[in-house]
């Protein structure tokens, strides 16, 4: 009986022992999987941490401040470092840029003058941008357009892009400038924009040029194409053949009106940093262009233009009713306009 009991007990132990073995193996496999998981996670965390640090290290390089320029204290408001949205200035990011605007009137030599400026390697003058009415419809559209120009995001044939040292535009007095003069003066002074005034001394020559240009808009004398400016003597000769007839009765009042508009513009923008030029002076004395380059703080260059003057020589050959005009002007403050005051 005792032997049977012992035999039974042994059988019990012998049959239970194999059931414990799979449990232990499962535990070992589970522990091994957990260790592997922890190891893999730790590697991933280290990699993420490494990328994050690399990303943070790049930020100071991008936002690195440009060194202070060696300039007079009064110049500081007129030195800028624009950051265009449409491209990178790359190695020229720390090249300072001056902002300017050429304020003038139609047929005052501003087109010729602007081609001279754009002949400079580091100057970009973007043309008569506000001739498009929608851009000057209100002060908001004007400011939006100016911001785009001075941020170097206005792309035109004149754009020098990355290494521009002076950027601006040509702006006629009758293109929203006088109507919004208060806000524009504030903008110019706040943004550090310098003004180049360009006018004509001989307003009679300007009047003849205005009338001839208006005639050609309809007549289109150059093979059915209207051109305000030409680049060949032949084209200039064709356009110069037209001689306008000027209303002698309204001549003096019209000349006075132009003078008053010029004086008003100078008064409105007197608080800005500016320089005043006259077309005749630039034609006769090219050192005036050196003065302009000094004003814009750009290196001196010899500036050239391909434009050819249309109306040359004596005024008596450029207007149809010359005798009538001469009678009206003689003895007035405008008598000097009858003389040839420059050559080109």
TrEMBL record:
Q: Which SUPFAM superfamilies match?
A: P-loop containing nucleoside triphosphate hydrolases
Q: In terms of domain of life, where is this protein from?
A: Eukaryota
Q: Which UniProt keywords apply?
A: Membrane, Transmembrane, Transmembrane helix
Query: Which chain regions cross the lipid bilayer?
Result: 23-40
Q: Does the keyword Ribosomal protein apply?
A: no
Q: Does the keyword Membrane apply?
A: yes
Name this polypeptide is given: Sulfotransferase
Q: Which organism is it from?
A: Lithocarpus litseifolius
């Amino acid at each position: 009986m005792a032997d049977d009991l012992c035999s039974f007990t042994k059988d019990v132990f012998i049959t239970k022992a194999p059931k414990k073995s799979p449990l232990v193996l499962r535990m070992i496999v589970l522990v091994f999987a957990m260790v592997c998981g922890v190891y893999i996670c730790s590697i991933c965390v280290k990699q993420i941490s490494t990328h994050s640090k690399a990303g943070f290290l790049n930020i100071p390089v991008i936002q690195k401040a440009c060194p202070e320029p060696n300039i007079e204290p009064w110049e500081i408001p007129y030195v800028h470092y624009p950051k265009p949205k449409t491209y990178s200035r790359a190695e020229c990011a720390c090249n300072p840029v001056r902002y300017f605007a050429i304020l003038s009137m139609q047929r005052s030599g501003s087109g010729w003058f602007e081609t001279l400026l754009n002949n400079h390697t580091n100057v970009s003058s973007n043309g008569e941008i506000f001739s498009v009415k929608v851009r000057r419809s209100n002060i908001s559209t004007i400011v939006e357009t100016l911001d785009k120009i001075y941020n170097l995001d206005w792309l035109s044939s004149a754009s020098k892009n990355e290494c521009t040292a002076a950027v601006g535009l040509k702006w006629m007095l009758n293109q929203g400038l006088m109507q919004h003069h208060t806000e524009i003066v504030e903008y110019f002074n706040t943004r550090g924009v310098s003004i180049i005034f360009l006018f004509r001394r001989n307003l009679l020559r300007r009047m003849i040029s205005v009338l001839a240009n208006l005639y050609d808009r309809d007549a289109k004398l150059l093979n059915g194409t209207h051109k305000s400016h030409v680049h060949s003597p032949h084209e200039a000769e064709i356009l110069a053949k037209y001689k306008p007839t000027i209303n002698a009765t309204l001549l003096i009042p019209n000349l006075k009106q132009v003078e008053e508009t010029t004086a008003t513009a100078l008064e409105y923008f007197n608080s800005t940093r500016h320089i005043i030029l006259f077309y005749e002076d630039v034609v006769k004395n090219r050192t005036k262009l050196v003065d302009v380059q000094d004003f814009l703080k750009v290196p001196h260059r010899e500036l050239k233009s391909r434009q050819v003057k249309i109306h040359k020589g004596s005024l008596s050959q450029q207007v149809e009713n010359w005798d009538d005009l001469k009678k009206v002007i003689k003895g007035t403050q405008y008598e000097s306009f009858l003389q040839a005051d420059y050559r080109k």
